Amino acid sequence: MSEAVALVTEDSENSMKKAIGHLELEIAKIRAGKATPGIVDGINVDYYGSPTLISQVANITVLDARTISIQPWEKNMLQPIERAIMMANIGITPQSDGIQIRLFMPPLTEERRRELYKRASGEGEQSKVAIRNIRRDSIEQVKKLQKDGLSEDVAKDSEKFIQDLTDRYIALVEKHLAAKEKEIMSI
Predict the structure, then answer these.
(1) Who is most buried in 16, 29, 150, 155, counting CB within 10 A?
(2) What are phi and psi for residue 36, nearest 5 degrees?
(3) pTM of this prediction?
(4) Can you give the residue range of the structural domain that contains 122?
């Protein structure tokens, strides 16, 4: 029976790690005023009928601290890439010169910084909810195992372990959010 408990706790820890990984990806997309190719990561463009990442149909380079250049490998991909960037709603208007697309990062105002932090906080809250849902599901599994003959002491110990795991991962979410807030709010 303790093998089943180990499986439940291991599964919950893996799921919590995935939630943190997702949070890291999402807050990396939130720009803090600096141009990075990561801003267009995850944006799909219609490439001959199939959704394809922009990085797979174009060369993405950072020209300076506030400018990203996207040069499609095929000229006919300029318009679909522009459309995809507009639809992604990343807060930047693409500008095309017929050969490449440039994304100019506007300087962040105090209001925009707060808005970006609010978005990062929303992502953090979603991660916390996901972690708490994993905790709830794991504890339910342990209670089912207890009904099937698992001793009460082992069940209580596993519930405590799952709670400690939850606390540790929620603290990790807070740490990521604090780092992102510092990055966004610094001028």
Answers:
(1) 16
(2) -140, 145
(3) 0.69
(4) 2-29+109-185
